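Here is an idea for our session: we take a single protein and study its fold together. Which protein we use is up to you, so please pick one and set it down. Once you have written the record down, we can walk along the chain together:
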Amino acid sequence: MQMNQELLKQLSDQKYALDQAAIVAATNSSGIITYVNDKFCEVTGYDRIELIGKTHQIINSGEHPKIFFSNLWKLISSGKVWRGEICNRKKNGELYWVFTTIVPFLDEKAKPIQYLSIRYEITELKEAQRIINEQQEKLVAASRLSAIGEMAAAITHEINNPLSVILGRTEMLKSILEEKNLNRDEIQHIADTIEITGQRIAKIVRSMKTMAHHQELEPTDKVSIEALLEDSQELCFSRFEKNSIHFKKYFVPKNLFVQCRSHEVVQVLVNLFNNSFDAISGLEERWIQIDVIEQIESVQISVMDSGSGISIETQKKMFNPFFSTKSVRYGTGLGLSISQGLLSKNGGYLEYDSLSPHTRFIVTLPKVKMG
C-alpha cells in the first residue's frame, strides 16, 4: 500500500512538472480530443469545454499542406512516434509554433487506442530564425556586391587591355584596306585576333553578370562545371596575375553538369579564391590548384593553394558566423559561413580537408545524370 502511494505521488509530481512546461493533449483513435491541460488552454485562448470533443482542426492554421497531416497520421496510426514543428492558430487568430511529439498508445493487437501530444511553444525561436534568415540573405547580397566592388578596378583594367587590342587592330585593317593589293592572310589574322579578344571581353562580362545576378526563390538549373570555373576565374584572373599567383591547369570531364544556381556557386568559388589570395600572397610559392572529381551522385570541386593548412584551433571555429583570423578592415568573417549556407541551399556542402599537406577546401554539388 505504501509503495502504491509513493508511486502515485511520483506520477503526480511528474505530471505537475510536465504541465508547467508543456502543452499536453490526448485524443482517441479517431483524433477526438479527450483531454487538454491548463497550458493548452492558456496558449490557445480556448476554454477546456470548447476543446473536448473536437479535433485539432479547431487550431489548424492552414499554413501546412494537407499532405503534411496525411503523412503525420499515416505514421502515428502505424504505431510510431511523430516529432516535428507545427504552426497552429489561437482563438484570437494569432499564429503560434510548437515543437510536437505525438505518442500512440497501443492495445494488445498493436493498434492505437489513443494519442498523447506533448508540445513546446517555439514561436519566439521561429521568429528569431526568420530574422536570422533575412539578415543572412542581406549579408549574401552585400558580400556579393562587396566582391564585385573590390574587383571593379581589376576588371576595368582587364577589359581595357583587350579593348586597346581591338581598336589597334581596327586601325590596321583600315590602313590595309586603303592599299591596292590586299593581303588576305594578313586581314584574316587581324580578324582572328579581334574575334578572340572580343570573346575574352564577352567572357569577363558574362562572369560579372553571373556574379551580380540575384533572384529570390529562383529554381536550380543544369549548369556546366566548366562554365562555373571559367566564370569564377575570370573575376579573379587579373588580380592574381598582377600578384604572381597562378592557377594550375586542371581537367574537367566533358559533359559534366551539376544542379545549382550558378551565381551562388560562383560566389562561393570566388570567396575561396579570395581567401587563398589573402593567405598566400606573402609566400614565396604562390599557386592555386583546382581539381574536379566526378562521383556517382555528385561532383566535387577541390580548391587547394600553396598554403600549409589551417590550425586545428581555427578549424573548429572557421565555419562559425563572424569568426575571422583577419583584421576588421579586411573582412567580417562571414565568408565560409555564407558559403556553407549557399551550398546547402543548392543541395551541396563545403568541407575542409584536414589531411591535405596544403590548404584545401572541397565543394560538393549534386550531379546531373546524362541520359
In short: The chain has eleven helices and twelve strands. The CA atoms of residues 95 and 301 lie 43 Å apart.
